[in-house]
Amino acid sequence: MEQPFRVRRSPIHGNGVFATADIPAGTELIEYKGRLITRAKADELYDEMYSGHTFLFALDDHWIIDGNTGGNAARWINHSCAPNCIPYLHENPRDPLKSRVIIETLRDVRKGEELSYDYGISFDVPYTKRLKKIWACRCGAPNCTGTMLTPPDHERNTLP
Predict the structure, then answer these.
(1) pLDDT tens, 120-138?
(2) Which of 79, 104, 121, 156 minimizes the number of CB atoms within 10 Å of its CB?
(3) Considering the entire predicted model, what is its pTM?
């Protein structure tokens, strides 16, 4: 069966993934693929914090999917502050190396619309102006925060 999307240049950033047909809410679109590496190996290979660009998807505190190697179209789905998709972790409790990430639509998506999800990027360092600029968001949503960085836990609004 043909996938209801294709990769092409994006006004948000570089390449993007666009719907080639109307897609209903709750549709499983694609698995995020790539080689499985440890967080330590990712830190060794990539200066992720200061690159502003990543194809790394964290499965947990130890394992990361590296979409740079063996990746598929899912790596081109851009971040948005008003996403129309969401990544779901399908954990394999017996073998974490068999856990999978599936990108699913959050709402109905119209043909021609760019697919996006909230990257939820966070680092254990203060978010300086420089870091926020490196991880600038260009989604253009009315509620755009200006950064792909998720606020640190101590800055999030929490319920009592």
Answers:
(1) 888 888 889 999 999 999 9
(2) 156
(3) 0.89
